[in-house]
Automatic annotation (TrEMBL):
Gene3D superfamilies: Carbon-nitrogen hydrolase. The chain crosses the membrane at residues 20-44, 56-74, 86-108, 120-144, 164-184, 196-219, 505-522. It is found in: Cell membrane. The keyword Transmembrane helix applies. It is a multi-pass membrane protein. CDD domains: ALP_N-acyl_transferase (cd07571). This is Apolipoprotein N-acyltransferase / Copper homeostasis protein CutE. The lineage of its organism: unclassified sequences, metagenomes, ecological metagenomes. The keyword Acyltransferase applies. Its main location: membrane. Residues 239-498 form the CN hydrolase domain. GO terms for molecular function: N-acyltransferase activity. One of its GO terms (cellular component) is plasma membrane.
């Protein structure tokens, strides 16, 4: 059994805790550039296994602190009592902390075997693990370091090349440079011939990269959207119904919910929008299946003369199947979808959500692990969509991102590889309550706009709804749990960014570099051992 020495892991806990305050709703973004320094310095003096544990102690407060909002969803709407709800968040945080633990282990192993600056080891390794966390086991790229900078527009413009991971890279680069400076005398004392010029050179390179990033950011902030031949204006209205989650599908409130959206839309129509957007699953009925309400909606849109995009649950016909207990799917399944009704009242576009929420909209491995069916009874059972389809109106094309999909950079870019003008994100963040969840979710939308150089329209049931331009500037937004509407003129374009065209090339290069680095270090260790064996 290993012994835990609290003082030894204090720097890791301190860094992980401080990092929480760099994220919304605290928004002390500057903390991210310095608060990881104690963690990195402490790893230098640790063996691999101790560094692994330090990574856990860093990750637990970091992930638990930024994702504690999950307990509200599980407790308030999942019917799970407080302590088990917190335990669920703790277990998720523990899983995510494995990535920072692996970082600690590999970093500590590498730094002892080379004279390389910490920056060359830390930044590519961290970003490789962040990227993998976003894809492994369905992926959950929440709490990425780069999101702390969503308000720092000059810094985040680089995302149209690197994605959000490039901003994470810069943050680690600065932290590692500061740790490098602190450890320079220590490394020289351990190795009198230690090449200090490598450390000084890496610090200089870091400074140049930050300066270049800022210059690029200022240039993009001034140039994006200024070419009149490439841009045009469109006016959009967002309707925020602010419907409590426990009333949303209550039959007693169905008419009231529908009337709220119709009333707010009539008010918004006075501002002559080119399109109206309702949030995710805004309709309190099954569009197309509930004929009376569907006809009422299409006639309402036809009378308004303005296209309406709305979220809805669609009923899909499927072959009748039975599970091991003999329960049938009754020949239909549900999809979380978006539909566009044009100004003539006709359905012209349907998009089915592709990336569903595990244990929220579907149960992973349910067909293989049959016992899960009983354990998670009551969880939604939706079918995922397969096609990255865009809607088309006279003024241009747009892709619809539904809720959770907005946190996946690689998914969003696929809508725009072959063109498109606007990102529309419809979501229902009522699940998050008045926690930090809605604010963090909104901050990620800023990066999706910058990465793809497309303005983003965000319609959220209970907020935060808003308009974000192609540089990530928030033009207008709503508060939480406010029944309201907002209208804005936004500039759309035909640009295809480097990130949209080539995807996570930067992340792939980080992974390749990290793998080659550690292969090189392993070969170095083997050669040293053979040499020492020969001498002996």
């Amino acid at each position: 059994m290993f012994k835990i020495h609290p003082s030894r892991y204090f720097p890791a806990v301190l860094s992980g805790t401080a990092l929480v305050f760099a994220f919304p709703t605290f928004n002390i973004s500057m903390l991210a550039w310095i608060c990881i320094v104690p963690f990195l310095i402490s790893l230098y003096s640790m063996d691999g296994h101790t560094a692994f544990r330090a990574g856990l102690f860093f990750g637990l407060p970091y992930f638990f602190g930024t994702q504690s909002w999950i307990y509200y969803s599980v407790n308030h709407y999942g019917g799970v009592s407080l302590l088990p709800s917190l335990l669920i968040v703790l277990l998720l945080s523990l899983y995510e902390s494995l990535y920072t633990a692996i970082f600690g282990f590999l970093f500590a192993k590498a730094v002892k075997r080379t004279d390389l600056p910490l920056t060359i080891i830390a930044a590519p390794l961290w970003c490789s693990l962040e990227y993998i966390r976003g894809y492994l086991f369905s992926g959950f790229p929440w709490s990425l370091l780069g999101y702390t900078q969503y308000n720092s527009l000059p810094i985040i413009q680089i995302s149209d090349i690197t994605g959000v991971y490039g901003v994470s890279f810069l943050i680690i680069l600065v932290n590692a440079s500061l740790a490098d400076i602190y450890l320079l005398k220590v490394r020289q004392k351990e190795k009198p011939l230690f090449p200090y010029w490598k450390t000084l050179s890496s610090v200089a390179v870091t400074a140049v990269l930050i300066a270049a990033t800022l210059l690029y950011g200022v240039y993009k902030l001034r140039s994006v959207g200024t070419e009149k031949s490439d841009t045009r204006q469109v006016r959009i209205s967002i309707i925020q119904g602010s419907i409590e989650q426990d009333r949303k599908w209550n039959p007693a409130y169905q008419r009231k919910v529908f009337n709220i959206y119709k009333r707010l839309t009539l008010e918004a129509l006075k501002e002559n929008p080119d399109m109206v957007v309702w949030p995710e699953t805004a309709l309190p009925f099954y569009f197309g299946r509930d004929k009376e309400q569907t006809t009422e909606l299409t006639e309402f849109v036809k009378k308004s003369g303005v296209p309406l995009l709305t979220g809805t649950v669609l009923v899909r016909n499927r072959p009748v199947t039975k599970n091991r207990d003999g329960n049938s799917n009754n020949g239909y399944m549900l999809s979380n979808s978006a539909v566009l009704i044009n100004s003539a009242g006709k359905l012209t576009y349907t998009y089915d959500k592709i990336h569903l929420v595990p244990f929220g909209e579907y149960v992973p491995l349910k067909s293989t692990l049959f016992f899960l069916d009983k354990l998670v009874k009551g969880i939604g059972d939706y079918i995922p969509g397969k096609n990255y389809v865009k809607a088309e109106l006279p003024w241009g094309q747009f892709g619809t991102i539904i809720c959770y999909e907005a946190i996946f950079p690689g998914l969003v870019r696929k809508f725009f590889r072959h063109g498109g003008n606007l990102i529309v994100n419809i979501t229902n963040d009522a699940w998050f309550g008045r926690t930090s969840g809605p604010y963090q979710h909104f901050s990620m939308s800023v990066f999706r706009a910058v990465e793809n150089r497309k303005p983003l329209v965000r319609a959220a049931n209970t907020g935060i709804s808003g308009f974000i331009d192609a540089t990530g500037k928030v033009l207008k937004k709503t508060g939480l749990f406010k029944e309201t509407y907002i209208t804005e003129d936004i500039l759309i374009n035909d640009d295809i960014s480097f990130y949209t065209r080539f995807g996570d090339m930067f992340s792939f290069l980080n992974i390749i570099f990290t793998v080659l680095l550690f292969i090189s270090l392993l070969n170095k260790v083997e050669r040293t051992q053979k040499y020492q064996g020969g001498v002996t």
